[in-house]
Amino acid sequence: MTTTQQSVPRRIWTQYRSVPIIYRIAVAFVLGTAVGAIAGERAGVLSPFGDLFLRLLEMLIIPLIVFTLLGGMRKLTPSKLGKVGGLTVALYAATTTIAAVIGLAVANLFDPGTAVEFTGGEAQQAEPPSVSEVVLGIVPENPLAAMVNGEILATIFVVIVFGLALAIVRESTTEESIEDAIDGFFSFIDAGTQALFKIVWGVMEYGVVGVFALMAAAIGTEGLGAIVQLGALVGVIAIGIAVHMTVTYLGLMTVGILGQSPLAFLNGAKDAMLTAFTIRSSSGTLPVTITDAETNLRIDESVYGFGLPLGATINMDGAAIRQAVTVVFAANMVGISLGLGDQLIVLATVILISIGTAGVPGAGLIMLTVILNAVGLPLEIVGFVAGVDPILGRIATTNNVTGDLAVASVVGKWTDGIDLSAGVWGDGSQPGGEEPVAAGD
């Protein structure tokens, strides 16, 4: 093979890599959808390629939580940890409440479901976790088992306790050998974090193939009929999420608090947003969300290392809107009018149940079962709306991940943990076709 022949594929690869990954994934999304619509169920043969992408992302969740949380602890004093943690949890609670209120407002305004005939369906009742179950579930009996089983809240708790203990020992000890040992441990964590970011970049390169396969298989097997049939439900939920993202995230948080262009924020968060829309999992998107926070939004690890893993579990703004609208939709289908008391129950249940629901595909149907049970609506409705769960899950998860990054940005602003002169904030551009770099580089 001549030098010229060898250089052709290399030039093609270089040109391919020069295109920002977000655009390559977007093209894969569109092509996968088209292939699925044309090939139908035959596109299901591509499922393993999409499943591999999901597994690669899931493989990174626990290691990223452990390394980024511990790395963040190095920069946090115990007093600052309390401030960062308190602000993060308070903002998550506030935005979820706002989301649920918006969901009920748009549902009452557009009144979806009045013209839909309830055809029945099957559903299995799910008992809501009690307060004690939620609290006790945070503290694992076996920390290693919690990590192996992917119990994110329990893993976060263990890592925070251990990291905080290391920080306290580092501040209080007078023994140089202990100081050196702790510093060496944190240096190892920093090196491991950078290695994980390299892996994330490689996974996202494969994500072009993975996204194509996921969309082709999903559209080919599920079809578009359910989306057309329940278009009103999808439309109202989409409106609610658009209002929440525009007013709460881009308006109040980006412009009002950060004082920055909302387009800059969207530019910095779009990788995570597209990934979330594709795979329908806040937890699965976490590797990409962390990369966006570090590389594009320039949030300090001491802020995003705590807030993003926690947000992937408890910040369910999109799910709150989705559930609020769906309950009103369900009530209209069976001819039941929800009074103010019923809607207050829906509001409270949506906010509380989000803490105990995992950020994974299908969790929305579990939440819906719980909420329908709370207001006395037939659980069979879950089976009726399950046909549009893929699209509802996608737009809700996109909202959740956007909220995670918005909250992390605001907490960074309030704690001097964000560099608003660099990344997308500096000149409005986003690195494309390059590997991510640390915020301080």
Automatic annotation (TrEMBL):
InterPro entries: Na-dicarboxylate_symporter (IPR001991), Na-dicarboxylate_symporter_CS (IPR018107), Na:dicarbo_symporter_sf (IPR036458)
Primary localisation category: membrane
An annotated GO BP: carboxylic acid transport
GO-annotated molecular function: symporter activity
PROSITE patterns listed in its UniProt record: NA_DICARBOXYL_SYMP_1
Membrane topology: Multi-pass membrane protein
Name used for this protein in its record: Dicarboxylate/amino acid:cation symporter
Species of provenance: Natrinema ejinorense
